[in-house]
Each structure stands twice: as structure tokens, then as C-alpha cells.
Design a protein that fits this description.
By secondary structure, the chain is of the alpha/beta class. The chain contains 9 helices and 39 strands. Bound molecules: uridine-diphosphate-N-acetylglucosamine and calcium ion. Uridine-diphosphate-N-acetylglucosamine (UD1) binds next to strand 1, helix 3 and strand 10.
Length: about 450
Amino acid sequence: MNCAIILAAGEGSRMKSKMPKVLHEVMGKPMLQHVIDQCKIAGVDKIIVIIGHESDKLKSKISDESIIFREQPVGDEYPYGTGFAVMQGIDEIDDNDNVLIVCGDTPLIRNESLESLMNYHDENKNSGSILTAVVENSFGYGRIIREESGQIEKIVEQKDGNAEELKVKEINSGIFVFNGEALKQSLKEINSDNAQNELYITDVISVLKDKGKSIGGLVVEDNDEIFGVNSRVQLAQCNELMKKRINDHWLTEGVSMISPDTVYIESDVKIGRDTILYPNVILQGGTEVGEECIIYGQTRIIDSIIGDNTTVESSVIEESQIGNNTSVGPFAHLRPGNKVGNDVKIGNFVELKNSIFGNNSKAGHLAYIGDGEVGNNVNIGCGVIFANYDGKAKHKTIIKDNSFIGSNSNLVAPVTIEENAYVAAGSTITTDVKSGDLAIERAKQRSIENWVVKRGLNK
Ligand code: UD1
Ligand code: CA
């Protein structure tokens, strides 16, 4: 079986945060979740996450039944370090398992690289395989020390290395694959006799080497993948790298962006071909945008499904579904729970909440549509308000097909407007309107003759 132990118990003190480091988000997803997702895609069957700091927060944020969480005890009476962290999950490992070890703070790692390392490990029948990288500046990393033959001898940490060792540019990414039995046995032999007084997972390498086991190193193709986040500056850099990776993907898939640097697309978003994203578009969560859509700037779409050939301009759309050939905005706000049909127009300063809005219906300007059920071919005039709240509870407004609601009307819910009915402009409707009727509710207009002159107000 392929298992993974993900190390996420470090304090992450340089983040200066109340939240565990691995919960900080990269393009809308916690770093740890990125690593978990990549492990799953790479074909890992069992994932064990070692947690420490604020473990309850962590467990509730990563709500995934299939993950096994293990808490690393922290305190003066316990050792510290990556080796001690791995020990917390070792009883979940069988001798014949392959164990992938990954850090929870390297969210840019790709499933392809994890899979390559696992394949490399199997093909070479290694006891341990290290994903390495050759970097310009190796400061801070563990260095890969090779014998003259090229065979890996050990990993030396920054604080423990001599001048010669510290010159080495090949570094440990912190990602390994071990044979289960070899890992278990060698963990028993590591000690904290080093500059940081920690149990290092990296020491397993020299233990295995001394036993004559075969160790290998595979150089990662793209160094960005092993980028580890320890500070907010690095978190920001990581977001930039991931943003570019995501945007490049969608550009390759046939989505146009006028200015990709300014477009923010979170990792789980999907976008159809020939859709055009203008500058400053934000697409978040599980949003799916169809084909041939145009999304203009200053638009934020969260957890929503947009059909094909739909246009959105300068609007906010949350947890809603929108059909095809529909136009939203500028300056519309769709709050959660809407289902908007095809060929619809939701225009300037229109707010929708928890409403169904049928095909071919229009609300062109300045309306509030809350808890509504609007049929097909309905026209909602300018300034119409669905008065859905009586101070205690929310009620429904139902408008059936082909009806017309005149401008500046209030529909006091619960109320139903039947099919083909009209509401005259300026009416406050409190009782149901029958099919085919015109409901008019306003005082009869009268004029006071010559009022201006009598009042001495004429100019
Ligand atoms: C580690 C490696 C180093 C490698 C580098 C890559 C060791 C000794 N060193 O160094 O060779 O080049 O990663 O980024 O392994 N963690 C725990 N419990 C602990 C300590 C750490 O779970 O007691 C976790 C952290 O949350 C983190 C990971 O282990 O996710 C790595 O720990 P970190 O302290 O960042 O190790 P480095 O010093 O960067
Ligand atoms: Ca690190």
C-alpha cells in the first residue's frame, strides 16, 4: 500500500499568527489541503497527518474522514524534530508499505513529482528515495552529501555542516519515499546528537546507508515545487507562483485573459473554452464558469455556477446558479441561494437573495428580490422591492409567468402574483393578484388649480 505521512506539527512561529501555519491559504485553499490533494491524485491510499499546534482548529478545517490525524506531543519532556514527528504515525505503517513523507508547508508540490519519486523508488528497489533539488542558494536547507561514486551518503543540516558540506548546492526537499520496514527499523537508531538537539528524519538516510541499503536521489524538475513557506513573505510569493500556475493552465485550456497578472482564480475553479476574463476578476471556491462567457473587471464570483455565453460586469455573485445567455450587472449583487435562468437580464444595482428567477425574465434596474419565485418572461420594473421580512420571519413572493411589476412597487410577502397579471407602478401589494388583472394601489391623483400663484411662489 502507498501511505503518506504529512508533517504539520511545527509551530510556524515566523508566521506570527494565531492559526497553525499549514492552515494559511494559498489561492483559497489551506497549504495542508493542497498537499493532501496532491498525495491523493498521486495514488496514495492512506494519509496520516502529524499535527501539533492548535490541533482542533486544524482537524475542523481539514474535514476529511479518510485522513488519520496523529498529535505530536510537545513540551520540555518530549524530543522535537521531523524524525520525532514521523515516529507519531509509524504504527499505521506496515512493513511492505511504501511511505511517502511530505511537509505540510510545501503547497506547490505536484502529484506528478510525488508519483515520479514513488516510481523511481520502486524501479530502483530502494529502501529510501529523496526528492532533491539543485539550487543557487542552498542556505537553510539540508545538503545532499554524495560519495565520489555519486552514491548518497547522508544529509547534513545547515547548522551541522562543515564549510565543505555547506557549499553543496543539491538540497533535500523534505520529501522522501521509504520502505515501511526500513523506516521503522532505522527510526529506532536516530538520536538528537546535533546542533539543534532534534530528532531529524534526515538521519534515517545515513542509518540505512550504514546498513548497506540502497538510497537514491531524484532531482525535482521545477524547484518552485519544493518551495517551503515559513513566513508571510514566502506565503505571498507562494500565492504568486500558484496564481501563475493556475492562470497558465486556463490559458492553455482555451480561456482568454487580457491581463493574467491581475486575474485571481482559486485552485478548484473550472472555466470553459473561449471565455474571456478581463483584468481584476476574482473567481473563488468551487466556481464553474461555462464557455464563451465574458467576465469584466471588478467581478467576484464565489462558489457559483455560470452557464455558457453569459456576461457579468462589476458584480458580486455568491453561491448561485446562473443560466446561459444571461447578463448580470454592472453593479449587481447575487447573495447566496439564487437560481437564475437562461436569457435573463439582472441589471444595475439589483440585489437577489435566495430566489428563483425564470428564463427570459428581467430586472433591469435598482431592485431587491429576496425569497422570490419569479417565473418566465416576467418584467420587474425599476425600484421594485420584495418586502420579504416582517421583523420576525422571512416570507415568499411568488410571481408567475408573463407578469409585469411596475416601477417602484412593493410586494409585501407572503404574496402571489398569478400569470399574466400586472401591478401598477408605485403600488404596495399586500394581497394576491389574480391572473389577467391589473392591481393598482395608490391614492387617486388630484390637482389643486393655480396653487403656485395662490401661494405666491411663481417666479
Ligand atoms: C527540513 C529538513 C531539511 C530540508 C527542509 C526542506 C530535517 C531535519 N530537515 O528542514 O533537510 O532541506 O526541511 O524544506 O528534516 N515538523 C513537525 N514536527 C516537528 C518539527 C517539524 O511536524 O517537531 C514539520 C513542520 O511542521 C514542517 C516540516 O516538519 O512542515 C519541516 O520542518 P521545518 O522545521 O520547517 O524543517 P526545516 O528546518 O525547514
Ligand atoms: Ca521548512
